[in-house]
Amino acid sequence: LKPKKKHNPQREKKFPEMAASGEGASLPSPAGGEDSRRRRVSYFYEPTIGDYYYGQGHPMKPHRIRMAHSLVIHYGLHRLLELSRPFPASEADISRFHSDEYVSFLASATGNPTILDPRAVKRFNVGEDCPVFDGLFPFCQASAGGSIGAAVKLNRGDADITVNWAGGLHHAKKGEASGFCYVNDIVLAILELLKFHRVLFFLLLFSVRGYSYF
């Protein structure tokens, strides 16, 4: 029998979401044979993501990401995962797909619509569906940073499965916002994965159509 890990109540009190577990940061594979090893799962979460607010009546509600994270914690699923806080994606990271002009606009946009250039508002398609709200660019950086970080983990072989609930904003186009999405973290993650994988299959499970990105 393997010796049990020592229980450390002080560690759990200080870092309740990182409490030690006999299972570790992995999940069992449903398959048998050679594929029966435990899957290493890396879960990216930005604690401030639920603070961002698209506006009254808008169907996109980032606080739902915080609610999902709360369920992960309260059901104890975090004990089977490696929990990571994503680094914010830089303007250079985001510009790997999006145009420099569009990224500069996002980085300088504020929640005060009266100081926005009307021509830029029209050009970059921000408005009712894609409002400019307080903290817009940090929100985009957190979303994209989680997906890029997830791809890096896979490329390095540090994880078998990665999760970023703040990602999946697949409607954003190269030079404009669209469908509640500003930065296309999926494309950025794919570009990162393609550094090491010549062939990549991407499956989008969603109730509406995606767009052609390239």
From TrEMBL:
One of its GO terms (cellular component) is nucleus. Residues 1-37 are annotated as: Disordered. It comes from Aegilops tauschii subsp. strangulata. Residues 58-200 form the Histone deacetylase domain. It holds the Pfam family Hist_deacetyl. This is Histone deacetylase domain-containing protein. GO terms for molecular function: histone deacetylase activity. PANTHER family: HISTONE DEACETYLASE HDAC1 (PTHR10625:SF10), HISTONE DEACETYLASE HDAC1-RELATED (PTHR10625). GO terms for biological process: epigenetic regulation of gene expression. InterPro entries: HDAC_I/II, His_deacetylse_dom, His_deacetylse_dom_sf, Ureohydrolase_dom_sf.
